Amino acid sequence: MQTHTGTVYQFGPFEVNVASGELLKNGRPIRLQEQPYRLLLVLLENPGEIVSREELRSRLWPGDTFVDFDGSLRVAVRKLREALDDNAEDPRYIETIPKRGYRFLVPEVRKTDTASEITEPNDLAHLQTNTSSVAARQSHKPLLRYGLAVAVLLLTAGGIFLWQHRTRARLLTDKDVLVLADFANTTGDQVFDGTLRQGLAVQLEQSPFLSIIPDEKIQQTLGLMGQPADAKLIPAIAREICQRTESAAALEGSIARIGAQYLLTLKAVDCESGKTLASAEAQANDQNHVLDALGKVSIEIRNKLGESLSTIQKFDTPLEQATTPSLKALKAYSSGMQALRTKGPDTATPFFKHAVELDPNFAVAYAYLGVMASTTLEPSLSVDYRTKAYELRDRASEPEKYWITATYHKGVTGNIPKAIEACELWIQDYPRSELPHLYLGAAVLPVVGQNERSAEESIAGVRLRPDFPLAHAFAIRAYTALNHFDEAKATYAQALERKLHTPYIDVVMYYLAFAQNDKAAMTQHIAKVESLPKWEHLMLNMEGDTAAYSGRLKDARVLSDRAMDNAKRAGEKDAPALYSGTSALREVWFGNTDEARRRAALALKLSTGRDLQYFATLAFAYARDDARAKALADDLDKKFPEDTIVQLNYLPSIRGRLALNRGDASGAVESLGGAATYELGATRAIELYWTAMFPVFVRGEAYLAAHQGREAAIEFQKILDHRGLVLNQPIGALAHLGLGRAYVLQGDIPMAKAAYQDFLTLWKDADPDIPVLRQAKAEYAKLP
Asked: Is the pLDDT of residue 158 over 90?
């Protein structure tokens, strides 16, 4: 059963007006997002009855909608319960029927229909009822004629209105895409150049109905047109881009000065015919009110292009609140966005910094600074920026609030469930946006080891934004982590076919080549990026990890030290510390405890970032510097109480190793029990893949210490089975040795010999003086 648009539902203090799309409580509107609202309608249509999960899927998410149904439904139900002040444990309105669906507990919902009724000709018969005389019938003829005339007039007017409304609504659909041109500026004030287009983009991106063509697609099309990537999008160029990309319309704006006032105009133009589909204009009394006028024309054009009034009302944060009331700050921000699109983060960063200097409350500018600091391996600086953005999140548009919330919980609190929830809500409100899918797939889900879903979300991002190079890089990495190497290669082929490139693609392709032991391809991808600023030190460190993986420790030290020096010269703060911290772990696993302590101590002098502190702490634990390791672990626990990977991956690994140092193997296994759900988690999305399966490695060592060979073999085999996830971490090589020792405990000498031989073959060119290698050779020689 479908709800009529004129229906009003009433239950308790609540009222649902379907026509206006509102939920009211005692006459006051209650904010409710689209998916929870639609869920409420379905339940109200079936009061007292169980609505199955299958029906909810079909009604809320059509078959062509890509979404995590279980997670999204849970979020929708929770949001609806919050709006109704309901409690899942003691429900008044919504009852959960386990494994079946949900039931609205109010069996008799008051339902009224406020839709206008059209009188049929036969219904006019009552005008003649109880009137038998001819005179009486004659006396009613004028009334009858008048009533008929009114009815005809109403029908005609209603028909015209409906026709106009349908015509307007058909101008654009939720499948169409717009090209946003630059504003023509005849005022002589340069502060408007680029600024108004950026402000309009922020306003229109609030709309879940309208969609603007991505900037990388514009740049790609400009290249095909023989235009520079930063060409001004005058109407002629915008319309050609519109035609080449098969977009629906171009939005062309202008600003002019009329005396002391400013006139803003905006029109949507059909790309093929040049016909104006819709237009809007607004005046500003002075420069300080231009952004307010821009907000007004954006609202009007959204409505005229077919967007419903309900979504406009729901997603309409004023521009001055969504960005900044300062034109100069918005100008700096728009310059930063342009630089980010065409020249990269290094060029863009000064503009964003200038924007927050001009307006210290510019939330989105802080958010961009936070993301860019993380991509340049400066996590401590990233935390500061992300925290500031989160504190100011009310000064952002709705989609940007979701983004700021997700990045804050992922990069600051570390609370991954909250980051996932923010992305799921983002997807519900903005199903056409690729960003929440990509952020989930690349940055959030890998942290907790949900690699299957990571691949799904990354591919959803590619589908929604096929010309975004990073989307392909994220998908390649996700497929590699799953050992789906053919799918990863196919995604790379798609990127090449579209002529897409970013250094990130070469980074993930290097790792894919490593997983497949393709040394030629590894060399090829290294060569593409090793000379690029801020990439050389990353590639040097990756090569160092690869050298260590095969036991060439001296080469690894040289490469890692070069990476540190290169990063320092480039002005990096946290990257040198991270490289020192990971090399400390490498040294201690290979048996060089003194060198491990030195490198771990150096790392802590350079930075105090979360991941760096973990690497150093685990290195101290393996080096049996227990007091220092415990103090650092307690500090991690105190500083990151809700951080998912700290609490359920890092700390169990450290405490498990410290238990082994005390000779408490069973205690170590117990400490590592809570890490089982998150043991596949990797601390970074692209640049470094350290921490994946560290709890598994420590658990394997604990079982060896407990003389439980079968259980130990299972753990080490897990590492070997996840080659695309572990990659060139030292534990990927040492797992062969651990497996051999596990088989010895089981008395399976043939399998033990095979595992030892795998390790010794991998390290056939290793430095002969590495302690773990000497020990492995001695153990192998003793096998019968």
From this structure: no
